[in-house]
């Protein structure tokens, strides 16, 4: 029997020929990323296990972005300590405030490559599965162990295919697609699964759109979201990612927990209503609801094409 994308990546990372869903593996980490709010806690956890230096300065990325610029004395103190740590550890990849959203930096600066294992002390690290990596969020304690050893234990997840077909109607975006998927699968419906986004609609999406899908995989409980690498992936990586990589593809006879199919050809813009992300309704059902505040951006939708879409509406 063949292997899924996730199984292949975790097999490589753990030095094995094959692994199967449900197995526990000790995997070598290719990239470890921390934003400001979890970085100090992570380094404290590293010291608690007796290590004073990170296992590999080339593989650690520290980014001050969640509270940027610092809005309170507490967040300013966190930034100051993070800067001190970056200097003490002689980190090669440190980004101060206003460099950008952590997940955008990882992608644009070429830290993420297909076939690699990326962990981040932020739940939306799964966004980088859009580039064919196994990317997942971890807590500060687990990140401390990664900083100390370069390794992490993981249970190999079962895989679920979310097959999305159809041409997106005008004003319907990848964010609407993932809200539709979450609305059907549920906020806990893919717990610890590796969700592979496939189908013609996904193939037509830009890398930015695919990152939106994978970013929100965690909102249905998934361990990661993934898109199989294709020419769009490789084009995005040219001039960004350095070094060799393996554009891992799943085997035709791999085992999947489920295959969910979605036709988005007549999809309306979607709205996640209070108080759950899976309380999703077509915009027509909530038309006329007063809006008090609009936020444009975030790690899910903060890229140029998202801002262009907002500008087109506001113009």
From TrEMBL:
It is an enzyme of class 4 (lyase). The keyword Protease does not apply. Coiled coil: none annotated. Pfam families: Aconitase (PF00330). Keywords: 4Fe-4S, Iron, Iron-sulfur, Lyase, Metal-binding. Residues 20-315 form the Aconitase/3-isopropylmalate dehydratase large subunit alpha/beta/alpha domain. InterPro entries: Acnase/IPM_dHydase_lsu_aba_1/3, Acoase/IPM_deHydtase_lsu_aba, Aconitase_4Fe-4S_BS, Aconitase_4Fe-4S_dom, Homoacnase/IPMdehydase_lsu, IPM_dehydratase_rel_enz. One of its GO terms (biological process) is carboxylic acid metabolic process. GO terms for molecular function: 3-isopropylmalate dehydratase activity; 4 iron, 4 sulfur cluster binding; metal ion binding. The keyword NADP does not apply. Its EC number is 4.2.1.33. This is 3-isopropylmalate dehydratase. It comes from miscellaneous Crenarchaeota group-15 archaeon DG-45. The lineage of its organism: Archaea, Candidatus Bathyarchaeota, MCG-15.
């Amino acid at each position: 029997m063949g292997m899924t994308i996730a199984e292949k990546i975790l097999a490589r990372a753990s030095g094995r020929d094959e692994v199967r869903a449900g197995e526990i593996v000790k995997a070598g980490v290719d990239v470890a990323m921390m934003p400001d709010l979890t970085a100090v806690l992570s380094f404290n956890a590293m010291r608690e296990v007796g290590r004073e230096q990170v296992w590999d300065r080339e593989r650690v990325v520290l980014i001050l972005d969640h509270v940027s610029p610092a809005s309170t004395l507490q967040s300013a103190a966190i930034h100051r300590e993070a800067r001190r740590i970056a200097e003490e550890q002689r980190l090669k990849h440190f980004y101060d405030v206003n460099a950008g959203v952590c997940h955008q930096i990882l992608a644009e600066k070429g830290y993420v490559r297909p076939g690699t294992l990326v962990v981040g002390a932020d739940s939306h690290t799964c966004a980088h599965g859009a580039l064919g990596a196994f990317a997942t969020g971890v807590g500060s304690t687990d990140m401390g162990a990664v900083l100390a050893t370069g390794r992490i234990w993981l249970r190999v997840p079962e895989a679920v295919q979310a097959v999305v077909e159809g041409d997106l109607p005008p004003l319907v975006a990848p964010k609407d697609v993932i809200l539709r998927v979450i609305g059907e699968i549920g906020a806990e419906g893919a717990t610890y699964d590796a969700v592979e986004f496939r189908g013609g609609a996904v193939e037509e999406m830009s890398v930015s759109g695919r990152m939106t899908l994978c970013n929100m995989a965690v909102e249905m409980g998934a361990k990661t979201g993934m898109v199989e690498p294709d020419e769009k992936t490789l084009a995005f990586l040219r001039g960004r990612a350095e070094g060799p990589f393996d554009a891992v593809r799943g085997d035709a006879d791999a085992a999947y927990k489920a295959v969910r199919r979605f036709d988005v050809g007549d999809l309306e813009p979607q709205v996640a209503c209070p108080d759950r992300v899976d309380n999703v309704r077509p915009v027509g059902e909530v038309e006329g609801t007063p809006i008090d505040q609009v936020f444009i951006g975030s790690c899910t939708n903060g890229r140029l094409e998202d801002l262009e879409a907002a500008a087109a509406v506001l113009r």
